[in-house]
Amino acid sequence: MTLGSWLRKNVNLFSRVRLGTRFAATPLRSKMLELSGLSIIGFQRGERGNGPFHGINPSTGKALAPTYFAACADEVNRAAELASKAFDIYRRTPGKQKALFLRKIAERIEGLGVTLVTRAVQETALPAARISSETARTCNQLRLFAELVEEGSWVDARIDQADPTRQPLRKPDIRSMLRPLGPVAVFCASNFPLAFSVAGGDTASALAAGNPVVVKAHHAHPGTAELVGLALIDAVRDCDLPEGVFSLLFGPGSQVGTQLMDHPQIKAGGFTGSRSGGQALMKLAGARPEPIPFYAEMSSVNPVFVLPGALREREDEIATGLHASVTLGAGQFCTNPGLVFLPEDGSRDLIESLRQKMAATPAFTMLTGSISAAYRNAVSVFAHHAAIEELVWGETEPPGAQCNPAVFKTNARSFLAHPELATELFGPATLLVTYSDIAQLSGIARDLEGQLTATIHATETELHQISDLLTTLETKVGRIVLNGFPTGVEVCHSMVHGGPFPATSDGRSTSVGTRAALRFVRPVCYQDLPDSALPDELKDNNPLTIWRLVNGKFTMAAVSDKL
Amino acid sequence: MTLGSWLRKNVNLFSRVRLGTRFAATPLRSKMLELSGLSIIGFQRGERGNGPFHGINPSTGKALAPTYFAACADEVNRAAELASKAFDIYRRTPGKQKALFLRKIAERIEGLGVTLVTRAVQETALPAARISSETARTCNQLRLFAELVEEGSWVDARIDQADPTRQPLRKPDIRSMLRPLGPVAVFCASNFPLAFSVAGGDTASALAAGNPVVVKAHHAHPGTAELVGLALIDAVRDCDLPEGVFSLLFGPGSQVGTQLMDHPQIKAGGFTGSRSGGQALMKLAGARPEPIPFYAEMSSVNPVFVLPGALREREDEIATGLHASVTLGAGQFCTNPGLVFLPEDGSRDLIESLRQKMAATPAFTMLTGSISAAYRNAVSVFAHHAAIEELVWGETEPPGAQCNPAVFKTNARSFLAHPELATELFGPATLLVTYSDIAQLSGIARDLEGQLTATIHATETELHQISDLLTTLETKVGRIVLNGFPTGVEVCHSMVHGGPFPATSDGRSTSVGTRAALRFVRPVCYQDLPDSALPDELKDNNPLTIWRLVNGKFTMAAVSDKL
Q1: How far apart are CA A479 and CA B70, in angstroms?
Q2: Cα B368 from Cα B124, distance rounded (Å)
Q3: C-alpha distance across the termini of chain B, in Å
Q4: A493 neighbourhood in chain B, CB within 8 Å
């Protein structure tokens, strides 16, 4: 019996039995789109009772129905145990079936239609068009991972054939490939209610790699999370995958997340959020009896270096682009350009143009009251900083969760003397830093902490004058952008959305693009196993027709008997 | 000017100037093979003075000349700073030049000839034949990494071409590849004075990946370390590479290692040794202001599962193989088979045969007095354990650093009731565990900690009866061996010498085989850079003729203008 037919037979059976008994009462099918406020633990719903909370409409400050309930300790434990059980089957699920599953999730999310957009807009104050495009991006991302695992070569299969004649010792047959780690805890981001949340990049990449996922919803958009969670669990059912491949836990404080990260059945974690939150979870991941990989994407000021020639050639374009990039999503982007280096000579018009655009920009409603409060505090510290000139920051404070855009200015000398000026302002704000000489730039770059991105605006001639800056940035960031803007992270095979600490907890990784799946695997090696006992990826005749490294050469060919 | 010609011009100049001035006094050329007892810091030697110590001949207990001196804080700092400076050049050194360097190191080590063998035998009590074969393995390993970086495809180059017509937003040109992390601290192992020491796997893989290396020598074989260090620094000179690409520090305590791991210019670490030592360094790596990747290979009992059918067919072969594997290198192998599961029925003859072989094996001289003492203590705990039967352990304790081989026996029930029986005995000892039913085995495997290897002796029919065991082991170990023995780690592309914690600090990695280079890199992404500013690996016309993932397809073809 092939694994495929085995899975179809047994997993079907498994689900049916369960469906027929304890889970029949709450068939999670998307025709039931009423929100319940309860966690999703395997195929069951959580209990009412623990830590009630609500989604809040940041535009009105009003609580949104229904009441949400935090998962209790027993539920967190059950989600992790179910995930561990599901792992036994899911990790052996062939790529083609995982691809069907990922595509089904996308289809189910698209099926949520206007219900999803309406709820997400209510919970985040982001415009409907942004929610729609983020949904499309999330679904495209799921489909890109589906393509990856359907094609299959991503597992880095390697074969070194035996040589029985080698002296003094026979050379054994060694084969290896990447295998999933086990259940992954995913922490949703506040600023991407879809693309970095329940079925976002971490979930898509962990599932693609063969790992069950236990998602901790973000308290700022529980309704959005529940809708996507229902779509996801429907896809699990549609694809006859085992209970526990996916669970969704609510919990507004740190308790649920802490318990999850400490759970022995959780084998990795993914997080997008604040530096303090990320570092707290990093500590937990490292302090466990069995430390686990933990991928946190935390903070970045995404420096932009504008060179004189580029400024002369494209002043308007740069001003317009900067304004759009700084204010995109109310500046609540991890790739928001928070530091812009401009030549002292010749940047007056650009600064004035940017000042006018930002001053004319109405206040933004931030994602949550606490993000708004944190932004106001941080901006106010900048506004009162002796080394900083305030160019834009609304004269009157807007009401509720609204915030004014802000632009500040300083010079390179002051910037270097005050490391606190490189602090991230999470919101629609940026700090302009004037420099007198392009030779200063590589020194400035050398002093920066790790970043997700760095952007350079330069003519081709200038680009070759600043090779020092370019090579310094290669050691500091995950992505170098030329003559563009850092916001807008293309979902593709070559994307790196990562970077050295503190941009992320692990600079060897990316959370966007297909390389993200490599975060949740490890190589496993088979010595002298017969073909029949090997995974399909490593069998002689290459039944999956994938690219493999055979005796050191990339090939799709079958392995022949002779070396 | 190409980078190659630039390097030749400037690095030559750089070395010459330095040679002519402060370094002229101690030209590190291998014609001067007298040992000095001093650290090698870039192109300079360390100072006499700090923490004097000696290599000890474990066979005699006598100190070996010369006196060695620990690196002082200033020297450790200098080595790290020089490495950081060298990184600016070395990380841009083309693969072909790195290959020349790695081959030159191998050649220089081979040039040490009998001097190296003699010293290593004196310091380790390992037989000359073992030292010679380990030297050959070390040099082959360097040459395998040379092939890897010369061919060049290992950098996982990816290109997604721009699409200016895409709506609503132009698709940018995105390219990425793996780039080195920065200076790597390498901690030498006591049990492999060559293959896991100064120019061993960690050093070879870190250098191949483009990282300078600061090696902390093992205090048990300082002379061997110095000889190899001299060979290595000669290779640096021969290849006109910058000062700081390699340094070698002596320091018998934990001070030098601690300072190294805490140094801000050190960006990763590699270690082979004890669990306590590895975990102490793991903590340091995680607690730095900038946490860094740290790869420790620590402890493993390498379970062997012998099934009844295989036992019937190959009893003698298994007994002989086990005896050889348990006693290889006095059992001081990280892949030593420390746990052997045997069927209760039918294993009497094998046990008796193994008992006789082990009882007839003379005492071994261990690598150091402290390893010998630790082995005696650990074996003595087993010998006095109520759940254990002692089959072999010499009646009289041999003198000095000598130790008797040992064989213990228990049954599966007792083994499961006493988790302490899965503790590694580092030396020529093993614990036989009898089981009554093969159905017990997957449960036993499930309870094991992470391991480097697991071995199964089974007929092909049995192999399909124990698919549960096999799939459980896939989640527990780095390498599964069928009908062989775990000692003997093939150096090849597909090898995985790693495994989940506590076998290693990071189960996503291997310390043997070409995948080891992937430990010391991270992906870096370039958005919309012109061809002239891109690394060669990512240029349109593929000047290095490497395999790349272009728009999602593996190809060696140049990138054409049209998508």
Answers
A1: 41
A2: 7
A3: 31
A4: 158, 160, 549, 551-552
Interchain proximity A480–B525, CB inside 8 Å? yes
Confidence category of residue B560, pLDDT binned at 50, 70, 90: confident
B-chain CB neighbours of A475 within 8 Å are: 87, 91, 182
> Which residues from A are below 8 Å from B286, CB to CB?
282, 286
Placement of tokens 């902390």 in the chain:
B216
CA angle in degrees (0–180, nearest 5) for B181-B184-B190: 150
Rounded to an integer, what distance in angstroms lies between the CA atom of residue B229 and that of residue B197? Answer: 10
ipTM above 0.95, yes or no: no
Catalytic option among B243, B334, B403, B537: B334
The Cα B474–Cα B476 span in angstroms is 6
Give dist(CA B456, CA B442) in Å, integer.
12
Residue B130 CB contacts under 8 Å (≥ 6 apart), including other chains: B329
Residue B8 pLDDT greater than 60, yes or no: no
Q: Smallest Cβ distance to A528: which of B182, B474, B482?
A: B482
Q: Which residues pair with B408 in a beta bridge?
A: B390, B431
Mutate to test the interface with B, among A133, A143, A298, A494 (most CBs of B within 10 A): A494
Beta strands in A263-399 (DSSP E): 268-272, 294-297, 304-306, 339-343, 364-365, 389-393
State the Cα–Cα distance between residues B200 and A57, nearest whole angstrom. Answer: 60
- The pTM assigned to this predicted structure is 0.94
Q: Are A549 and B494 in contact (CB < 8 Å)?
A: yes
Joined tokens for residue B120 = 């290593």
Residues counted in chain A: 563
Flag residues of chain A having pLDDT under 50. Answer: 1-28, 30
Instruction: Please tell me which residue of chain B has the smallest CA distance to A467.
Output: B533
Active site residue B474: no
Q: Averaged over B382-408, what is the pLDDT?
A: 93
Count other Cβ atoms within 10 Å, centred on residue B47.
15
CA distance A440 to chain B (A): 18
Nearest to A30 by CA among A233, A241, A215: A233
Residue B533 and residue A477: Cβ atoms within 8 Å?
A: no
| CA gap B539, B548 in Å, rounded | 11
Relative orientation angle of helices A348-359 and A308-327, to the nearest 10 degrees: 10
User: Please, are residues B211 and B91 in contact by the beta-carbon 8 Å criterion?
Assistant: yes
A to B CB pairs, distance under 8 Å: 200
Q: How far apart are CA B103 and CA B145, in angstroms?
A: 9
Counting every residue, how long is chain B? Answer: 563
Helical ranges in A213-273 per DSSP H: 222-238, 255-262
Q: How far is CA B428 from CA A58, B342, B361, B454, in A?
A: 68, 19, 10, 18
Do B532 and A464 make contact, defined as CB atoms within 8 angstroms? yes
Would you call B137 helix, strand, or coil by DSSP? helix
Within its chain, how far is the Cα of A181 from the centroid?
18
Cα gap A160→A563, rounded to integer Å: 9
Strand-pair partners of B430 = B407
3-state secondary structure of B27: coil
Confidence of residue B394 (pLDDT cuts 50, 70, 90): confident
- Closest among B178, B464, B274, B488 to A507, alpha carbons compared: B178
Chain A interface, best mutation among B1, B489, B494, by max A CB count within 10 A: B494
Give pLDDT tens digits for B214-249. Answer: 999 999 999 999 999 999 999 999 999 999 999 999
DSSP B177-190: EEEE-S-EEEE--S
Residue the block writes with tokens 């990790």: A91
Q: Which residues of A touch B93 (CB under 8 A)?
A: none
Cβ of A523 within 8 Å of Cβ of B500? The answer is no
- The pair of structure tokens assigned to A56 is 């809040």
Q: How many CA atoms lie within 13 A of A369 on its CB side?
A: 10
